[in-house]
Design brief:
The protein is mainly α. The chain is built from 18 helices and no strands.
């Protein structure tokens, strides 16, 4: 088996993508008057990255396609994050009960429905329900991403099996085009039936539903397949290249994702009408095309920006990004509740800018502490597991 490469720049990219999400949830962009980023592309890069890394990691392993084994595989992939999901959801639940206590006191008939929604959230089924406020973003809103990932992980062994049958890079490209075609047609059909952006169902279907968002993950797997096949036929890393040229590529890819995307999408809307909207919201359409260059330059890691992205502190922040992603919403939502129900501060009040760095520091600090706690607990569990074996050896 070939030596597996570690993609440090991708880990830092995870952290940078989190910063964008944090900027939205904390209200930072609104407060400084910056146009909102094309958020669907940010999640597309997250999912493509996961698909790429999963295929690269597991491409040489034999994976069972038995449904029961797939469920175990999916749970195994998510179990590291599940305790944090439950903990953050319960904290958010405490916020909801505290700030909306009168609702529960005066409307007891709503308690059963509320309890059901809590159960759906804890079971990571929230992204399957086309009701954004009541289910998808209920409690710890960002956890909808886990609801998508657990489905993607379930499908992963089947995806690997199918991709291995492609055998050539050309067939991989054809598979990507076919995937886009199917997703684009589905987006047009759903949009034409529901009213496109006037419909909550359309927004849920394109941005949050596990079926559509898994297409991003599958595209990432296809990119992983193409990358692995290229490494089989040629030594990619040994080829000469211009570091300055690749740095230019990296800067342009970054600007495309963070700046130019807003203008590109606006242009597509104005020119393409409903078809333009379908192209912009088809997950493996414009969102992936906008995010793909940034993903690729971080995979190859040849420019000065990638070298900076390989700095260990940044890589570590990338490693704990899923912790920061789940934790940050606690602090941003707490301040939102305090704004509305305690201090009466308008969300556009410039004073809110002073709270953003506080929320960020608390998020990063909490994630680091959680990471250390989890590692310490895992080491203790491993030590307990080896002690009986050592006793057996000594007594043999």
């Amino acid at each position: 088996m070939a030596i597996r490469k570690r993609f440090d720049a991708l880990q830092t990219l995870r952290f940078l993508l989190f910063l964008v999400v944090f900027g939205e949830h904390s209200g930072f962009y609104r407060l400084i008057g910056v146009p909102i980023f094309f958020e669907i592309s940010i999640m597309s890069v997250f999912l493509m990255m996961s698909g790429f890394l999963m295929f690269y990691t597991y491409s040489e392993r034999e994976l069972s396609t038995n449904p029961v084994e797939n469920v175990k595989f999916s749970i195994g992939r998510i179990k590291k994050l599940y305790p944090l999901h439950v903990e953050t959801a319960l904290i958010q639940l405490a916020f909801v009960i505290f700030f909306f206590f009168d609702y529960f006191r005066t409307s007891p008939e709503g308690f059963g429905y509320f309890a059901f929604r809590v159960g759906v959230n804890l079971a990571l089924l929230q992204a399957w329900v086309p009701n954004l406020e009541q289910y998808t973003f209920f409690l710890n809103g960002p956890s909808w991403f886990l609801s998508v990932m657990i489905f993607a992980y379930f499908l992963f062994p089947y995806i690997v099996k199918l991709l291995k049958k492609l055998k050539t890079i050309r067939n991989g490209v054809i598979a990507a085009v076919l995937l886009f075609t199917i997703a684009f047609i589905a987006t047009i059909v759903v949009g034409s039936k529901t009213g496109y952006l006037d419909s909550e169902f359309f927004i849920w279907f394109t941005m949050n539903s596990p079926i559509m968002r898994t297409t991003d993950f599958i595209l990432g797997c296809i990119i992983g397949f193409i990358y692995v096949e290229r490494r089989k036929t040629q030594d990619i890393d040994a080829k000469p290249y211009s570091k300055r040229l690749w740095t230019f590529y990296e800067i342009m890819a970054f600007l495309l994702l963070q700046v130019f995307s807003v203008f590109i999408v606006a242009g597509v809307y104005l020119i393409g009408g409903d078809i333009g909207i379908a192209l912009a919201y088809c997950t493996v359409g414009l969102p992936c095309l906008i995010g793909l260059p940034m993903l690729l330059v971080c995979i190859y890691g040849r420019g000065y920006m990638s070298k900076l992205f390989s700095w260990k502190p940044l890589v570590y922040l990338g490693d704990i990004t899923m912790y920061t992603y789940l934790i940050h919403y606690i602090y941003t939502q707490l301040w939102a509740y305090l704004q509305d129900y305690v201090f009466g501060i308008d969300k556009s009040d410039p004073r809110n800018l002073y709270i953003v760095p506080v929320e960020f520091v608390l998020t990063i600090g909490s994630a680091i502490l959680y990471d250390k706690f989890r590692k310490k607990r895992a080491a203790a569990a491993k030590a307990r597991a080896t002690r009986p074996m050592e006793g057996q050896v000594e007594g043999a």
